[in-house]
């Protein structure tokens, strides 16, 4: 495989088509710049920033774009990444990675690592101190293993969904060593200092340490979430002994959210599910008339998002955080790794997931039956009330008396043969 920088119009056009394939056709995203007629995704920043791509023979299999701090950043970018906290550093020392795409058949291979390692080398050569990006929940684990740190609250990107902001302190060799990052060897080649990592530790206390604990001490990680992982409602992990749970969660990543955050949106693409470690979330759907309908809640130990994980279908409901919460992100890659490394654990977890889906289907069927019964009752009532009334002509007083006499005579007339 070969990593290149796109410089010719032909190279860039192939990158734009690859983006369209991933973002629009696969994920269903609709950025403002999308060109459906030509099946390409291009924006003005492509003219000034560096576009990397990976070739496997004659096939382009991955790409990303890198900003190297050559120009001042706009207010929107500064707010998104909370750059006010980095005010003592010039914009020229910030880097940003965007538009990362890897073809489906190359995910889980070394392609992503190779591409980002090349970018990291260039980041060092350009003299950047901090490299920023944001990612979907399913990629948090990947970026944290590279050495990136979640340093601020998540945010919602309109066309992409709920994202986790990530930061790499470029010369933080100590942290790269702690998480066994593939960037470490390159970092040591450039003789890293300690000033930037010490500044980060003072400005964002505890952010780095919680990640290091997660990677190096799964036993402590398990103790921290024991209540959630052992709760009766945690059907996903039932039947697993503590040692198996410990192995399993060491492969995952924990994601935090603030009360009011929209975690998932109805209709968007998804490839992960979430195990609630603490807090509460609610499910909402949009009705045909455009109003919102409340479906239910999820709390400690419960799972949501499992349908998209299994079937790769769009999200069936919007999920909002009612309280601050934390979730274990369970991805398809997570399950595949478990199937290879711990098949007994993966089999039990997949069985539990099957049971969970069956229970969800049963509950949904019962709700539909109840709704159908209510609908049938209502239809009968409406049908009765809507029968046309027969309009009778008004009778005069003499006609009314005569009619009553006829009726009386008819009622008292002797029955023949009695």
UniProtKB/TrEMBL annotation:
GO terms for cellular component: cytosol. SUPFAM superfamilies: Acyl-CoA N-acyltransferases (Nat), cAMP-binding domain-like. Residues 1-168 form the N-acetyltransferase domain. GO terms for molecular function: acyltransferase activity, transferring groups other than amino-acyl groups; DNA-binding transcription factor activity. InterPro entries: Acyl_CoA_acyltransferase, cNMP-bd_CS, cNMP-bd_dom, cNMP-bd_dom_sf, Env_Response_Regulators, FeeM_cat, GNAT_dom, RmlC-like_jellyroll. Residues 236-339 form the Cyclic nucleotide-binding domain. CDD domains: CAP_ED. It comes from the Bacteria. This is CRP-like cAMP-binding protein.
